[in-house]
C-alpha cells in the first residue's frame, strides 16, 4: 500500500487529501503546523471566477473549467459525508462594466464561452437596474452575468474536506512542523518532524508560503512570496436589492459577496511587501476598497462593520501561478502550491492533477 504524505492543510491540501482518499490502496497522512484553513484559505472570499475569467485556453482555462464542474458534485458529496452545510451561492457572478471599458472584449468572451458550452449574458444599463436595483449605474455602462460561476465559504469547505477525508481513512496531524528530510535524489525517503520521523512513497508540498522553507531543505528552493489581502464584513438590516437574487458582484477588482442575513464580505486589497517579507496592513487601501463598494451599492454606506481581516496569498516569484508538478531533482516530491489568488477556485483541479501524477488514470 503506497503511503502519501501531504504537507499543508489549507483548501488545496485538504482537497488533495479528499481526492486521494477516493483511490483504493493508498494510505494518506496530512501534516500541518496549524489547524486547517488558518492561512490564506481562512482569509479568502471564495469567489469562483471561472467562466467569467479572461482565461480562454490552455492549462489556465482547463483548470478553471475542471474545478467549476467538479464543485457542482463535490459540495453535495461533502455535505452528505461530513453532515455539515457548506454555504454555496449558486446565483452566479455579476461583473460590472465601468465607463471607458471596451465592451467588445466582453462580447468576444461571450462568443468564446458559448463555443465552449458555457453561458454568459451581457446586460445593458436598463436590465442591470431592473434586476439589481441596488447598483448605482452612473459610472457603469452595463454588466456581464455569469450564471454558472459560484461563490462559497472557504473555511466551511476546507473543514468539510477534512472531515470527509477522515471518514475515508485519512490521518491528519496538526501542530506538526517539518524539521528536515532524509533524501537520496531522485527520492525523498522520510521527513523529520516535531512528532517524529515519517516515511512515505510520495510527498506532496501544498504548504503555500511554507513551501519555500520546505523546498529549501531539499536544495530545490521554490520561491513563494507573500501578497497581503484585506477584507471586511458589513451588515445591513435588509439584503441589497432583490432578496431572492443575490449574486456576487465584482467591478474594478472589488468584490461584494452576499453571505446571508444582510451580511456582505467586501474585498480585497492587493498589497506587496515594500522591504523584506513584512507587510503591515494599509488601512487606507482597505478604506478605498470599501468606498469603491459603496460607489457601486450606495446603501452599503449605512452598513455596520462587523469585522475586518487579512491574509497572505502565496505568489510564485518569477513564474506563473500555481506551481503544480514534480519538484526538480525528485521523482516522488510533488508541488501543489503558489496558487496566489486562486487557491479556492483551483483546488479541485489541483487535486485531480496530483491524483493523476500518483495514480495515472489508465492504471486506475
Write the layout of secondary structure elements.
Blueprint: E1 2-7, H1 11-21, E2 26-32, H2 40-43, E3 47-48, H3 58-82, E4 88-89, E5 93-98, H4 103-115, E6 121-124, H5 125-131, E7 140-146, E8 150-152, H6 154-167, E9 171-174, E10 178-184, E11 187-193, E12 196-199, E13 202-205, H7 211-217, E14 224-235, E15 248-251, E16 254-260, E17 263-267, H8 283-296, E18 304-316, E19 323-326, E20 333-337, H9 343-358
Parallel strand pairs: 1-2, 1-13, 2-9, 5-15, 13-20
Antiparallel strand pairs: 3-8, 4-8, 5-7, 6-7, 10-11, 11-12, 14-17, 14-18, 15-16, 16-17, 19-20
Helix pairs in contact: 1-6, 1-9, 3-6, 3-9
CATH level 3 topology of the largest domain:
FAD/NAD(P)-binding domain
CATH hierarchy class name of the largest domain: Alpha Beta
What is the terminal separation in angstroms? Answer: 14 Å
Radius of gyration: 21 Å
The proportion of residues forming helix, as a percent range, comes to 25-40%
What does this structure look like?
- The protein is an alpha+beta fold and 364 residues long.
- It has 2 domains: 2-85 and 153-223 and 317-363, FAD/NAD(P)-binding domain; 90-149 and 226-316, D-Amino Acid Oxidase, Chain A, domain 2.
- Helices cover 30% and strands 31% of the residues.
- The chain has an 8-stranded mixed sheet, sandwiched between helices.
Short structural description:
The chain is α+β, with helices and mostly antiparallel strands and 364 residues long. The chain is 30% helix and 31% strand.
Give descriptors for this structure.
globular, alpha+beta, single chain, 20 strands, 6-stranded mixed beta sheet, FAD/NAD(P)-binding domain, D-Amino Acid Oxidase, Chain A, domain 2, 2 domains, 8-stranded mixed beta sheet, 9 helices, 364 residues
Amino acid at each position: 500500500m503506497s503511503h502519501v504524505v501531504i504537507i499543508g492543510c489549507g483548501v488545496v491540501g485538504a482537497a488533495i487529501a479528499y481526492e486521494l482518499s477516493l483511490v483504493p490502496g493508498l494510505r494518506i497522512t496530512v501534516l500541518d503546523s496549524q489547524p486547517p484553513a488558518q492561512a490564506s484559505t481562512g482569509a479568502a472570499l471564495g469567489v469562483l471566477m471561472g467562466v467569467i475569467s479572461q482565461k480562454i485556453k490552455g492549462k489556465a482555462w482547463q483548470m478553471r473549467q475542471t474545478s467549476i464542474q467538479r464543485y457542482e458534485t463535490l459540495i453535495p458529496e461533502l455535505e452528505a459525508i461530513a453532515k455539515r452545510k457548506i454555504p454555496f451561492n449558486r446565483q452566479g457572478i455579476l461583473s460590472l462594466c465601468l465607463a471607458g471599458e471596451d465592451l467588445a472584449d466582453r462580447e468576444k468572451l461571450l462568443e468564446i464561452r458559448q463555443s465552449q458550452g458555457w453561458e454568459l449574458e451581457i446586460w445593458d444599463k436598463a436590465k442591470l437596474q431592473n434586476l439589481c436595483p441596488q447598483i448605482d449605474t452612473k459610472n457603469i455602462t452595463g454588466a456581464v452575468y455569469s450564471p454558472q460561476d459560484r461563490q462559497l465559504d472557504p473555511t466551511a469547505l476546507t473543514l468539510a474536506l477534512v472531515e470527509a477525508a477522515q471518514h475515508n481513512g485519512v490521518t491528519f496531524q496538526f501542530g506538526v512542523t517539518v524539521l528536515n528530510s532524509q533524501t537520496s535524489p531522485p527520492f525523498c525517503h522520510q521527513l523529520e518532524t516535531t512528532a517524529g520521523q515519517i516515511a512515505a512513497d510520495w510527498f506532496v508540498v501544498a504548504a503555500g508560503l511554507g513551501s519555500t522553507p520546505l523546498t529549501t531543505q531539499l536544495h530545490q528552493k521554490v520561491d513563494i512570496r507573500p501578497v497581503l489581502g484585506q477584507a471586511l464584513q458589513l451588515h445591513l438590516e435588509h439584503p441589497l436589492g432583490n432578496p431572492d437574487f443575490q449574486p456576487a458582484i465584482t467591478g474594478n477588482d472589488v468584490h461584494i459577496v452576499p453571505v446571508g442575513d444582510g451580511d456582505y464580505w467586501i474585498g480585497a486589497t492587493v498589497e506587496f511587501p515594500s522591504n523584506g517579507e513584512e507587510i503591515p496592513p494599509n488601512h487606507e487601501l482597505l478604506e478605498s476598497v470599501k468606498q469603491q463598494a459603496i460607489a457601486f451599492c450606495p446603501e452599503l454606506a449605512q452598513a455596520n462593520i462587523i469585522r475586518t481581516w487579512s491574509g497572505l496569498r502565496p505568489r510564485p516569484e518569477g513564474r506563473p501561478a500555481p506551481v503544480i508538478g514534480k519538484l526538480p531533482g525528485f521523482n516522488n516530491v510533488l508541488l501543489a502550491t503558489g496558487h496566489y489568488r486562486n487557491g479556492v477556485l483551483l483546488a479541485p483541479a489541483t487535486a485531480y492533477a496530483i491524483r493523476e501524477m500518483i495514480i495515472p488514470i489508465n492504471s486506475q
